[in-house]
Amino acid sequence: MWVDLRFLSRNWLKTLVTTLITPVLYLLAFGYGLGQGITVEGYSYLQFVIPGIAALTAMTTSFNAAGMKLHVDRLFYRCFDETLMSPVSFFSIILGKTLIGVVRGLMSTVALLVACFVFSPLTSVGVLFWLTLVSTCFVFSFLGVLVALIAKSHQDMNVFMSLVILPMSFLSGTFFSLSQVPEALRVVLSLSPLTHASFCLRASALGQPYPWLSLGVLLGFGVGFFALCFAALRRRNL
Length: 238
Description:
single chain; two-stranded antiparallel ribbon
């Protein structure tokens, strides 16, 4: 964790710019381009889509920051085995690898929100918004660590991102309301943790009734991913 923070402190501007390019492009293309004059659930499309893009930014940044670094350490530098041999508990290892994803996810999402406030000061954030955002960063950091622990090659990581992360980015209610899709597809999309993160962030930002059930499901995903990380470490250490 300390090594990752030192690297981040020396490269924070480059890291921030590279992680913000994609969400800012989404904001400009969907929010200001295609969304002009469109209302969704009684809100302008820009108001509707900003919480979704915030959830998407938290997911991709946390997953990549936690997962890719560990993946490279494990398969390229092969230095992760030294960490396993050290007198450090599995809990501390998982938490340490996860926290750098949480830090970078929060940093990128806050920067995106600052940019959003400049162009659209209508979005408000409160305690529940920050609670959901931190939870989202933890959930996807745990997922990144889990995938990095079980991936057997660099291709496995790319396959997971293409088959899971990319579809989740576009289909989990980030850019459109799930009330517009068939019931069967809505049930399938409810299995995505990003769906529940989008629900909670949007409700707290737009002043809607907060979906506590979705927050519970999101936290459940986090607990499940952490348990699977623990199991993956135990299996590697046998």
